[in-house]
Amino acid sequence: MSLDNSPKLKVLDVMTTQVITVKENQTTQQAARLLSQYRISGLPVVNDDNVLVGVVTEYDVISKEGQRVRDIMTRAVISVGEDTDLEEVRRILVHERIKRLIVLDQGKLVGIVSRADLVKEVAERWVCNVCGEVTHSEEQPDSCPRCGAGEVFASTEPAPPGS
Fold first, then answer.
1. Domains, in order of start, for the chain
2. pLDDT-derived band at 106, boundaries 50, 70, 90
3. Which of 32, 52, 79, 131 fits as disulfide partner to 147, beta carbons 3.0 to 4.6 Å?
4. Of 48, 45, 10, 13, which Cα lies nearest the Cα of 31?
């Protein structure tokens, strides 16, 4: 729990679970088509058992030579678990200067969490100015679900109760 008594958000709360993947024996062009079609910047590379073996990114496609995904993919992948705190995810993304983290459960791909997921979380976070309750919604709530107050504001930091 954080100081405002709201639970810390975890990867599970914001990750994408419908992950588009590519197999290492697919062609570089097939990977490029998936990146372009879905307007994403990276694809987890998995084997036939859905075990992660790498990541192929836009950068890999335009900067490396190779006919197959296995020839151009990045093999050293930083991953997290579903229970990793979002603050740790933010720290990794910033300090490693990467756009996404693969989410694994016992070596199996279960999701992906990106900078865009963290930006969306910030955009949809609302804090009650009276009791400090944190809620998530695309639209600003009319009132606080906990205390009923009408003073709910966007915030990157939870407001202390009564401020």
1. 11-120 (3.10.580.10), 124-154 (no CATH)
2. confident
3. 131
4. 45
